[in-house]
Amino acid sequence: MAKVLVIDDEKIIRDRMKKILGLDGYETFTAEDGEKGLEIFHKEKPEIALVDVKMPGMDGIEVLKNIKEKSEVTEVIIITGHGGVETAIDALKQGAFGYIQKPVEYDELAIEIKKALEKQEIQKKLDEYLNDIERANAELESLYQQLQREHEIAKQVFANVAHADHIESKHMKCLLSPMDIVGGDLFLTATGPSGSRYVFLGDFTGHGLSAAIGAIPVSDMFYAMAGKGHSIEKIVTETNRKLKNVLPTGLFLCACFIELDYTRGILTVWNGGLPDAMIIGRQGGIKKRLSSTHLPLGVVSNDKFDRSVEVVELAQGDFIYIYTDGVIEASNKDGEMFGQQRLEEHFAHIREPETLFDEICSSLAAFRSGAVQEDDIAMLEIRYDAEAASGFNGKTIGGPEEGSSSWRLSLEVGPESLRTNELLPHVMEILMEAHKGLSDHKENIYLMVSELFSNALDWGVLGLDSKMKKDPEGFEEYHVARERGLAALEDGWIKIDLELIRQNKGGKLFVGVEDSGPGFDYEKVMSQPVDDTALGGRGIRLVRSFCKEFVYQGRGNRVKAVYVWP
Questions:
Q1: Cα–Cα distance between 35 and 58 in angstroms, integer?
Q2: Phi, psi of 372 (to 5 degrees)
Q3: Strand 172-177 and strand 98-101: pairing?
Q4: Average pLDDT, whole number, for the chain?
Q5: Across-strand partners of 550?
Q6: Are 192 and 198 in contact (CB under 8 A)?
Q7: d(CA 33, CA 48)
Q8: Is the separation of the CB atoms in 88 and 80 below 8 Å?
Q9: Is residue 78 helix, strand or coil?
Q10: CATH superfamily of this structure's domain 163-389
């Protein structure tokens, strides 16, 4: 029930109003002057105050001002005599809700009071709404601040898992431009135990945190497996399995994995969903397109996953370019895309090879000038330099006197294990655990074991002709024949003998590899001049250069190498 305060110096008017307003359900209070009225106002806090303008002592305008100073809720209706229009207008300017002239028409008064109460109800709801908005804004501000902190944390975590501070090198340049604090593009690189360079460039669906949630499992998998020398096929298979298990439906990873083998001068590539990677000649021109032939990672389970790779030869000074669709789909302020053609124009004629990457970045930035970035942008350049990038020391290390054997291991693997191509990482792990001093020589040892094993498999068990690798076309034929031979392999074996002799802090490692193949006339082959143009055989020559002893035995299907370190 609303409260109404009547302030009027005429008793008859006060009594009539109280009676009529009481009949309408209002709780009514009366006062004969301004001072008494303000006392009741402060005590009862009425919704409506009916105030006569002309009263002895404090007049109605002063009462109005006092009420409005103390309350924004109470509505004041001024009662004036005939001819008091100017006073009424002044009252309205001071905040009065309305005015009524005497003699008072009670129907008019009832309507005016009802309108004032309706205004109060609307104002109350509006205040509640504004308070709700204010609370919501405060909550949003708090959430925003929390989100900003989480973004900063995520940004740091993302940089750490990507090892972003180790990206740039003399032979590798990378452009990473996320459209949010954290992007969906991920670049990883690591050196394998043989000195090969593993590189990964990926583009998660979407942007920001939702697109970056897969970065941690992918990077963990990449660094762990690349560090042990696992094959690209194995790494992409395990990465696909992991992402299929952890990513929600609709989130997947377009990616390109490569392994750059500096010893053999070959590039192994798996491309699933990224634009064509390209090999660019030193003087310009696209030598090879490495198109996507696979589904992105995390789309299908491993029983439907295609892990096959493409293997190509590289020449000194070649460039490898890998990029996400954010590069070619980058738009200018007119909505025009940068496009594949504009990118490839930079590859047609290279004036200064060292500045090619920077020229493309400058061209892209100038094209996008003034436009809002709508996607993450990532581009990678790798320049193949066999001599500068090789991680092998290539030195023959003189050894101490022999001591007693402190560790020995023999393995024999058959067709099924040979097909998986995952034996070497496990052998390397065993060797590194056998003697901590071997970790400083990991690259040489990996090269020694992998070359001997690969030769035993390719030329011994599978019977591939080494002459196939004399030119790039033959090299690709060799790779296809190797995959076909492994798939059809039903018998054959390879034995590996490892013996470690400890000497103070150093020691001597014997590696023997024997295969079930027919062997070859090694005395005749070893006496022939070296063909530096052939793609095959370079690894064995390098192994011989840093081993203290390297000999073929038997019918040529057994080889022994000795590596010594101080």
A1: 7
A2: -80, 130
A3: unpaired
A4: 83
A5: 561
A6: yes
A7: 16
A8: yes
A9: strand
A10: PPM-type phosphatase domain (3.60.40.10)
Distance CA 506, CA 500 (A): 10
Is residue 163 a contact partner of residue 188, using CB atoms and an 8 Å limit?
A: yes
Category of 261 on φ-ψ map: left (φ > 0), alpha (ψ -120 to 50) or beta: beta
Distance CA 205, CA 299 (A): 11
Tell me the fold of 405-565.
Answer: Heat Shock Protein 90 (3.30.565)
What does the DSSP 8-state code read for residue 337?
B
Interval 312-340 mean pLDDT: 93
Is the pLDDT at 362 greater than 80, yes or no? yes
E strand intervals along 143-301: 172-177, 185-191, 197-204, 253-261, 266-272, 277-280, 286-290
Q: Is the pLDDT of residue 276 over 50?
A: yes
CB 322, CB 288: distance < 8 Å: no
In the chain, where the domains are located = 3-124, 163-389, 405-565
Query: Are the C-beta atoms of 258 and 232 separated by less than 8 Å?
Result: yes
β-strand partners of 378:
176
pLDDT of residue 533: 42
User: What is the amino acid identity at position 223?
Assistant: Y
Tell me the C-alpha distance between 285 and 209, whole Å: 38
Bridge-based pairing state of the strands 319-323 and 558-565? unpaired
pLDDT of residue 209: 61
Q: Which residues of 443-478 are buried (b: 16+ CB within 10 A; e: fewer)?
A: bbbbbbbbbbbbbbbbbbbbebebebbbebebbbeb
Residue identified by tokens 């008019």 is 108
Give the separation between CA 57 and CA 64, rounded to whole angstroms: 14
Q: Residue type at 488?
A: A
Is 353's pLDDT higher than 90? no
Residues 97 and 116: beta-carbon distance below 8 Å: yes
Query: For the ranges 259-268, 298-307, 522-531, 554-563, which has the lowest average pLDDT?
Result: 522-531
- Structure token digits, residue 58: 């404090």
CA distance 63 to 507: 106
Q: Where are the alpha helices (DSSP H) in 48-186?
A: 60-70, 85-93, 106-162
Strand partners, 313: 266
- Over residues 111-159, the pLDDT tens digits come to 889 998 998 888 888 888 888 888 888 888 888 787 777 666 666 665 5
Burial environment of residue 19 by CB neighbours within 10 A (0 to 12, 13 to 18, 19 or more): exposed
pLDDT confidence band for 271 (50 / 70 / 90): very high
Q: Is domain 3-124 annotated with CATH 3.10.129.10? A: no
| 26 φ/ψ sector (left φ>0, alpha ψ -120 to 50, else beta) | beta
pLDDT surpasses 90 at 363: yes
Write down how long the chain is. Answer: 566
SS3 340: helix
218, 202 Cβ separation under 8 angstroms: yes
Q: Give the position of tokens 């005939």.
A: 82
The model's pLDDT over 423-454, given as tens digits with 9 standing for 90+, comes to 788 788 778 776 777 888 888 888 888 889 98
Q: What is the DSSP string of 400-418?
A: -----EEEEEEEEE-HHHH
Count Cα atoms within 13 angstroms, Cβ side, for 367.
Answer: 18
Residue 343 CA to residue 32 CA, distance in Å, equals 90
Q: What is the pLDDT of residues 201-234, one digit of tens each?
A: 999 886 556 556 777 788 888 988 988 888 899 9
